[in-house]
Amino acid sequence: MMPRFIQDELQALKSASLFRRLRSVKGEQGPTLMVDGREVLNFSSNNYLGLANHPALSKAATDAIGRYGCGSGASRLISGNMTLHEELEIKLAQLKGTEAALVFNSGFQANTGIIPTLIGDGDVVFSDALNHASIIDGCRLSRAKIVVYRHCDVDQLEDGLKHAPRSSRKLIVTESLFSMDGDEAPLKQIVELSERYDAMTMVDEAHATGVYEPDGAGLVSQWRLGERVLVQMGTLGKALGGFGAYVAGSVALRELLINRCRSFIFTTSLPPVVMAMGVAALELIKHEPERRRVLRDNCARVRDGLARLGYSLGDSRSQILPLMIGDADECMRLSDRLLDRGIFAQGIRPPTVPPGTSRLRITLMATHTSDQIDRALAAFAAVH
Ligand SMILES: Cc1ncc(COP(=O)(O)O)c(C=O)c1O
Asked: Is the pTM of this model over 0.90?
């Protein structure tokens, strides 16, 4: 018999306009998508540079299958550490300008594993209020005391650091480019505080990797803070168009994670095909900087166009534009009306964002054409 709570929970979600369903997407991930059987313009993807359906990644994937087969067969520490894993790690460390890098099966696994490796019972972790769920869960799994500071509020962060016991290990964790708001963390001030109060810093570059100069290395590199940040993590499934995640840092950090990080140790390693896609994507972001420039131009056009229509976009200057609505039901209705006009802009509701801050999360791609952007702006004007 089905436990009663399942239907009760589903009903409660529906009543609060928080029930989610999976949309079926057919064909390639590009600026246009086949959603529920209809072609629509895609403004809801993290495929920021358009690499997810790039022929170079497809070719690297098929070549890798030909050379290495499909599965990796075991975890990295057993027999699943293939040469391609190490090749990708060397290239990631070069991009990030760090001594070393380590690949993880996903960003979620990286965050839930890294944080408990660095801190534990009796320690303190300082976490931005808008950090991703995987960071929140990593903090919880660590069993350290969690101090959540207001979004980007370095004064409140400093206050927390001042009051933390001197003897405990301290870790500050933040995203560099926030996934749902598209704004940047005050990284320089955070790093200065970490040095003043003897805390470690971990920065999640999931949405900045591939997008920010130099060479797509991310915001830590852009601010020249690489030497002063203990852990830089990022993902390969967003701008890099593939799948998986990485940590970049010192050789000692890499060795500690290999020895202690449960989400690295106790899982089958990523298949070679995924590593080959990562290597191909790193080549593309290095040799095709114009993708980043076009993405920036596309962002500016959409941001200006939406602002002219009177939409509120928070503090975003990036490829992630949060079109603030507030009410969950209203947000989903707007998303549906846009979809009726052929524009896919997914509504984002709690618990992904705080209650009362439902929004359309509009994301831009380097492969959106001017005509597609004009069509989207016309649809936003029509539903306003
Ligand atoms: C900030 C942030 N960190 C981590 C993740 C998890 O990465 P992945 O999708 O590789 O599990 C995501 C995205 O889903 C994210 O937005």
From this structure: yes
